[in-house]
## 1
Amino acid sequence: MRSGCESSLQLTFQKATVAVDNIFKSLRDVTRARMHMKQFNSVYVPGSNTCQATYKPLLKQVVEEIFNSDRPDPVDIEHLSAGLTDLLKTGFSMFMKVSRPHPSDHPLLIFYMVGGVTVSEVRMVRDLISAHKPGIQG
């Protein structure tokens, strides 16, 4: 975010307040963008009497859900049909019991994270993939 100042000498309390307000407005917008999600709407994992609350990054939640074999249909991950054949399959699946393809079935998965990822997040994804799918490069 920019404060509209050429140097720190021109920064006033009012300009700093506006810049901070803009930052928090952007954070609230990101929160609202995830409110419609059923599973990935929070990075906060509440604690209990015996354990404290924890932080679980969104990227970790998504990767664990993709490679979780116990849940055949990820709730917040949607398959978008690419061609006419896929579109016809999707149409017939409404009438017959045809399951959607699972994300882990595909040979190549591309994650696009708005804002980027840190080195520790890349390492975390690589470790998660190697734990769930040995022999696959992360």
## 2
Amino acid sequence: MLKTIIMGSCHSVQGLLEKTLPDGRIAVRVGNQVFTGLPVMTGAPA
């Protein structure tokens, strides 16, 4: 499943969900690299 995370104040990364961490962050895989950050929240459907 594709997920988008925010790293810092202006970097976002989209990749395959790798794992969910206990503190609310998630890890996503892009190629051979794994990035960790806060998930981007989706808005409520209109």
